[in-house]
Amino acid sequence: MAENPRAQRLAKQIQTIVASAIEREVKDPRLELVTVTDTRVTGDLHDATVYYTVRGRDINDEPDYDQAAEALNRARGQIRKIVGDQLSVRFTPTIAFERDTVPETSAHMEALLNRARARDEELAQLRANAKPAGESDPYKRASDRPGDDV
What we know:
Blueprint: H1 5-25, E1 34-41, E2 47-54, H2 65-74, H3 76-86, E3 94-99, H4 102-128
Parallel strand pairs: 2-3
Antiparallel strand pairs: 1-2
Subcellular location: Cytoplasm
Region (Disordered): 123-150
Subunit structure: Monomer. Binds 30S ribosomal subunits, but not 50S ribosomal subunits or 70S ribosomes.
């Protein structure tokens, strides 16, 4: 089923407003490493779900998902107020934050695909050196049967 075009436009606006609010207006150091990745709005335009990811300070650091979730939930009212001020709708949607698991899922899928590619290469090497089981021509012909002279 196609999603409501108005809900899609509103979701895009909310995503932009929330991302800029987290970056510029919400003064919480736990939100420095949060990135807004997607936003979905229900068809009745009353509920918005904002998806986010968190990165570590360094490439080797593990992201702190719990601290980011707590900070987003504490700032939810302030962010909803900012969204309400900048949107031109009668009812400001309630905002819920949900961690985006797409990056982890895609990394897992990539690892599975790499494993499958390696297995395919291994099977291709085995196939190149393989010889058929039995005779090279496994089909019986009429001329091969004893007593049948054509």
